[in-house]
Every structure is written in structure tokens, then in C-alpha cells.
Amino acid sequence: MLRRLLFVLLVSAPLCAQERMPMPQVRIVEQDRSQPAKLHDLQVSVQVVGHVATTTWDLTVHNPQDRILEGELVFPLGEGQTVTRFAMDVNGRLREGVVVEKAKGRQAFEEVVRRGVDPGLLEKTASNSFKARVYPIPAKGYKRVVLAYEQDLADAGRGELLYRLPLAFTEKVATFGLRVEVLDQPEAPKATTSPLANFAFRAVRRGFLAEASRKDFAPDRPLAVTIPRGADSGQVFVERREGRAYFFVMVHPRLPREPKVLPKRLLVAWDASASARQRDLKRELDLLEAYLRGLGTCQVSLAVFRNEAEPLRVFQIQGGDARDLRKQIENEPLDGATRLGALDLKDVKVDETLLFSDGVATFGPGEARFPEAPLQAINSALTAEHGLLRALSEGRGGEYLNLQSLSQAEALKALTTRPLAFLRTTAGAAEVEEVYPSAGRVVRGPFGLAGILKTPRAKVTLHFGFGTTTRFTRTFDIDANRAAVAAPVARLWAQRKLAELELDKARNAQAISALGQTHGLVTEGTSLIVLDDVADYVRYRILPPEDLRAEYDRRVAADLGQSNQREKAHLEALVRQFEARKAWWNTVFKAPDPSKEKAKGGVPGGVPGGVIGGVVGGVVGGVAGGTARPGSVPPPPPPPPGSPRPRQQGQAVVEVVASVATLDRTETRTAANLAPGVMSSMPRSRAEAETPEPAGAIELKPWSPDTPYLKELKAAPGAERYSLYLRQRDTYGKTPGFFLDVSDYFREQGEKGLALRILSNLAELKLEDAPLLRILGYRLRQLGLPDLAVWTFEEVLRMREEEPQSRRDLALALAEAGQPQRGLDLLWELAKTPWDGRFRDVNLIALGELNALLATSKAKLDASAVDPRLLANLPVDVRVVLNWDTDNSDMDLYVVDPRGEECFYSHNRTAIGGRLSADVTNGYGPEEFLLRKAIPGTYTVKASFFGTRQQTAIGATTVTLELYLRYGTGRVENRSTTLRLDGRGRMVEIGAFRFE
């Protein structure tokens, strides 16, 4: 079993307007005990170009344990900070990470880890947070990891820039090195604080350098460096890369802010979602109250939003007295997810809007709609969507106030004045191209602009001013022949272009991914990955570092033909599977006579030695060797990782009465889909078509978890239950199951709005967590909210593109949301793709759903892309589908028919024609039970938790079970339920079908 090594980022003490920056610290977490790991070596190097600093952490970690460790490095970056490098040692040599599409990177990492090899993966998650996964850290050995990030330096006043490096290590490292280089710098920088004595700069090349190292040393003091910049000083940097000349210019304007016309009508949009608990709300309210005090008399419209927006409330502020407004905001519960699309305020007549939010949208589609008046975005959280908040504010003539980098006095001044802004660039059309930022950027401190030279020399003029009026300009003569020394200008250009593209992430998704891959930038759609063997780069088509490129190219050329053969072989295998399913569907099964079986002493259906309703582990039809096990006996414990589950050999003995005739073309389909390429259902025999269908009904067994919080809620008066839930959240709120259970309870009490609000907390609980969002999507479908379910499953697909379940979940939600063509296209994409072997039978299950969608859709669908050999609807009386949220887990579906015969993983065919798909023991499901022709009686549906090799945030595995009557016909009925299973071998009865 692996242990997890966790790199924890500490937040350093505030310095100069509460600046926060990441600092890695290493520890090993083992159950409920923490044992510090040994950071053996630490080298930190800094390079400053203009007002941009690149910080590189080079860490060597010693594993004192006698077993392998898996590592995770998680850290939030501040505004303007982004990762630019990730590397780790492979077989004693440092290997650089390469940029890869996020889904492909995760797929490669997880599959390689399953083989016990040593990849590394760094991903960007929501709100500018990053996490790196590292495996393995050898027992009693060392692992070297290198990570670098860039940041814009803050204005320290007095014509200086400030660089700060948080260092607060209390234990000594074997070696510590520190190096700071400032390029093209006319005046010497100065270290105002340093972990090393006499850390001084000396002139070198076209800049200044300070470096020192120590042995057996504890770097326990931060480094702070001030870099002189003259008033309105400017710098030019040029880099030639791959035949193009990139330029970067920096200017440090010194024009003060101007007073603005103060508003009389103010709109306050207040984010009261659960994530607001991470903001400094007192500081935000103090700022709002101080601003209103200065305004004196005005009207404030308050718009509170979470997963939904509340009706506007209007407050009349007299003499700056905002106590009632503040009290209203303070009394708002901080609960639910954040849905910016719920804000439709464009028609509100105001002079100014104040948006208080971290900008992290976690729930539902759409964009916030604000009035045309200037908008000021205000945020006090460390983790935030800084780019979005800046775009919302600056796009409406306002400003983004990040209280992490502004003092209260500075923020209040920003509200009562208007800032200097970069307005535009002028240059010869034949001289430069792709200049970023393009226009309309607030300037606070140093300002940098990047572009590409089309000619060896160019003259570029930057315009600055207030509103739309230019107040001054700065002109730069750029010479491509004066390239800077080792300056990463191309990457600085790419960072600025990326910032503009990310203002509309959905529309620019492909451009963002391409830019990240070209320039080595980690974006929300890309990752940095390190793989051990060149064969793994070839297998996943990931372009490796330069030292492996030649071997990669040679192997890819040889592998192309094999890939085409694999895809063709997969399609042919799927056709054979589908033919086998059609043969099953064409078979008329006749159950053995119950009276004859009873006379023989067996269970109806010929199951020897069992009890009706019991769990049968043997063979049906009286075949020797079968044994019965009562339903109360749990299945055996799961095998260790990598071991196959013991199987009971045996095959159901059935009597084939007849094959389905092919002359009578009775079909189940809709007129809308009588189009070329769309085939109907399989034909039925005349005798069978004339047989009346048994009347059926679905019953779900009520599931109420035995939890202390539900007991407390049920005992509380109705008016106090929501307040009680909010108090309970402090104790139980880290477990998703708490929100699932409480949401169900409020829904049962008729409080549907509160139930949805509570449920939506799953989206805020752990950002970028696909299993949690899957659960949320299933629940939204059950609640009859298909549009929200579609958005949720689209997020899951974005995060987990490499898993077939992501496409299937979205396809089914799309069909329910009135988008059947998109759903059909996704199901075909899923069916024709060869997936990892642990996703057993998912192609065949999706193919059945595709054909059922074609047969029952009221809209005319185009199935011309589907292989015609795979087009045939096979309707059934009974269908059961089991899904679960935890990877590397084994859930089992059991269906007991009226005769007592049980269909489950080692007995997957029954005498009356029941059919269970392949057992999924190392994935998410689905597992599917089908029965074409139901006999009268009760069919019991159960699920069993066989075991897992992966921890889940829920603490238990969440299982979603769907039960269908008359599936694949126009008279389908279905019910679904969600419950949680834990405890190895636990069996739960979920529901039943009753036929008369």
C-alpha cells in the first residue's frame, strides 16, 4: 500500500499590503499521525526581467520510511503568478516536464502509476491553484523536484519594485543555496531582509547578481529585495525564438489618480455562497460602510446571490448611515454554490456597481449580466478568479480591487478616485503584430507590454490616460539585434496573450491549449508531465523532452499502422458482441416448471438447495457443483490489488423454445427517425407480438442513513431546522454525504429551494473533483433539472475526458434536456473508442442506449455516422443500471427473479433470460442487467460493496441505481436512487419490479 506524501503550502506573514506567497513544506501523513519528512537540499534561484520575476524551487526530499511514498504538491498562487516549469529526477537524471492536454496527462499518469512506474504530473485547478503529483519517492531514498513560477512585482513606492521570497524553515537542510539575478538593471538592487548574512549584489553582464550557499543550515527568514526604478523609467527586452523576434517593454508611470464623480444610485452584488467563508467579510463590509459614509445620501440596491439570485432589496442611505444594510448582509447565510449566471441585473438603473465575490463560478451555465454603469469588483480571498474579476470591472470602466494586495486606505481611495489606464498602442502596421495587452488595462505600478516584431526595428508608442482621454505617451525604439541576456521574452508575451484569451475561456479553449503547449504554460486545459520511459510518451502521443525526441519520432512512425489496426479490431469485436446480444434477444426462454422443480427438492428454476430470494452462488438447472448461500452472508473480502476475484464456474442451463421469426416485421420506433442510416428494433414473432405485456411497477425501498445530524434535524421544530443545519455544517460539512442526506431531508419536507441550495454545496466543497460533480449531476437529473445536470456533466467531461463514463453521463443528460442529437453523437463516440480494459462492456452498454434513443426520440436524428451493423433497437421489459463514484472500486449488482434465481457477477445468465454485463472490478461501472420478457412476480434489486483500493472524499462510495420498465419503447418508465455503501461485503436491497 502506498503512503501519501503531502507538500503543504504555508502562508507567510503579510508584508506591504498583505502580500501572500507560497512556500513548500514537506510532511508525511500516516493515518492520524504526522511524521515530518526530511528536506535534504534546497536551492532557490530568482531571475528578474523588467517587473517580472521567475522563482525556481529545487528541492531534494529524503524518504526515511522503508516503503515507497506517493507525493502531492498543492499550492495556490496569487494574482499574476503562474507556473512555468516542472521537472523531477528519473533514474538519477533530471527530466523536464512537457505540456500535454489535461485529460491525456491524467490518463497517462494514472495508467502508468497502476504499473508501478514513476511519472510526475502538475495540473492547474480552479482559481489559479496548482497541484503536482509525484511518484515514487524511493524507500530510504531521495527524490528531486524542480518547480518554477512567474509573478509581476509589486510597486514598493519611492520608485522601487519589491520582490519577496517567503522562507520559514525551522529544520536544517544539508545544503541551501540562494541566487538572485536582475537583468538589464542600471542601479544595484538591495536585500532589505535575507536568511543569509551579507547577501549583497554585484554588477555582472548587463545587470546585478547576488548568490550564496550554506551547509547544515535552516533558512528561517524571508528574503525581500527592492529594485530601484526611476520615475517613468522604461526598459526594452528582445528574444529571438524559432525564427521570430519577441519584444517586451516596461514602463513605470507616476501619474496620480484623479477624483471621480461619486454615485447617487449604487448596486451591491453580494456573493453569499459557501465559499464566501474564505473571504474576509468584515474587511469587505468595513470598506463598503466607509465608502457609503463618504457618499452621504444615496440609494443602494442589494442583490444577494448563491446558486440562485434573491430579489433585489432597496436601502435608502441617509447621512452615510449604512447600519441596516450591513446588518442585512451579515445575517445572510453563507451557503450553496456560486452561480454567476443567476445574476440578471442589466436593467437596474444605477450609477455604479460593486461586486463582492471571489469570482469562482461553480454551478450552472451562463454569465453575469450587469448594468452598463462602471463596475468595481472587490475580493478579499486568496484563491480567486482574478482574471475574470478584472475583465468584469475593467470592461465596464471600473477596477478590480484585490484586498490581498491593497491596504484598507488604498482600497477606499481606489473607490473614490479613478485610476490611470493603458488606453492603446500605436505602431506601424508593418512593424509589429499581436501586441498584448491590446487595450483598456488599469495601471497600478509597473506596466508591461509584449508583441512580435515583423521588421528588425520598430517604433512603438503606449498611450496612458483617464477614461478615453490620453494624458501622456511613452515611445520605445525596439531593435531586434539587441536581444536581452537569457530573458524569457517569448514566454512573457505568451503569458499576456493567455491573460486575454482566458477572459473567454469557453470560446478560446483550443487557442489556450495550443498556446500553453507551444510555450510551456500550464493552463486549465493543459498539464506538465514527466514520464519514465519513451514508450509511454509514444503510447499516449505526448511529445517528450528534446533528449528523447529522436527515439520518439522513430517509434511513432512504426506505431501508426498498429494504431489503425487496433481501432479496426475494436470495431469488429464490438460487432461480434452486438451480434451475440441480438442472438440473446432473439432467444425465447422458458423457465422450468416450478412444480417439477419443487418435487425434486430444489428452488423454482432448478437452483439446488437454496431458498426463494436467497443469493445463489452455483449453477442453475440442476447442474452438479452448484451451492447456495443465504442472502445474509456477505461476499468474501476483495482480493489484494492486482489479484483477480475468485470466480465460480458455471453456466445457466436454459431451454430454448424458439428462435424469433424474421418474417413478421413488428417494430418499435418513432416516425421521426425513419431516415437513412437509422434502423428499427429487432423483429418479433407473431405469437410473441400478440402476447399481452404484463403490467409492471417500480418500487424503491426508502433509504434513510442512520446519522446523528438527521436525528437532530427530525427532532427540531420546522422553523429551526435550517439554522440547525448551518450549525451542524461546522462539524460535518467536510463530508459530502452530509449535504446529500440533509438535501434529501429538506426535499422530503417540501423545501425544494433549500434542498437544491444545500445540494449545490457539493460543487464548492472540493474544486475540480469529478466524482463529486458526478454525484451532483446524478442528483440534478433525479430532481428534474436536466439543464443544470448537462452543465455539471460538461464540467466532468472537461476534467475527465479520458473516462468513458464522462461522455455517457453527459449524453444521457443531453437527451433529457432536449438535445438528443448531441447525446447520440457522444454515445457513438463512446461506443467506437477502444477504452482501457478496466472499463468493461461500457461500449456495448452505450450502444444499447444509442439505439434506444434513436427508437424513442421524438426528434429526427442523424445516425449516418454509426456503423449500420450496430443499428438495431432491442427493447426489454426490465433494465437495471448501477453506477458509482469511486475509481478502483468494485460494486456488484444483484437481481433476484420471482423464482428465486439470482443474477450476479459469477452467475450472469438466468433461466428466464436475465443477462448481466461484465463485472467491473477496477472502475466506476456501469453494470447493466437486462431481461427481455418478464414473468409475473417480484424482482428484487440489490447492490453490494465488494471493496475499494482508493480513498474517496465522501468516506463511502456513492452508488446510483436506475431501474427501467419497457426500456427502448415509447412507454418507458424509470426510477433512480442514490445511496452510499461502505463496509466490505455490505449488501443493500434497493428496489423491486412487480409484474402481474
Give descriptors for this structure.
alpha+beta, eight-stranded mixed beta sheet
* Strand arrangement in the largest pleated sheet: 3-2-1-6-11-10-36-9
- Structural class by secondary-structure content: alpha+beta
Q: What's the helical proportion of residues?
A: 10-25%
Distance N terminus to C terminus?
51 Å
Distinct helical segment count: 21
Task: Label the overall shape.
Answer: globular
Task: Tell me the total number of β-strands.
Answer: 50
Q: Tell me, rounded to a whole number, the average pLDDT.
A: 81
From the alpha-carbon coordinates, what is the Rg to the nearest angstrom?
A: 32 Å
* Low-confidence regions: 1-21, 25-36, 603-672, 674-690, 950-954
Residue fraction in strands:
25-35%
Largest sheet: 8 strands, mixed
Polypeptide structure, described:
This protein has 21 helices and 50 strands. It has 996 residues and is of the alpha+beta class. The radius of gyration is 32 Å and the shape is globular.
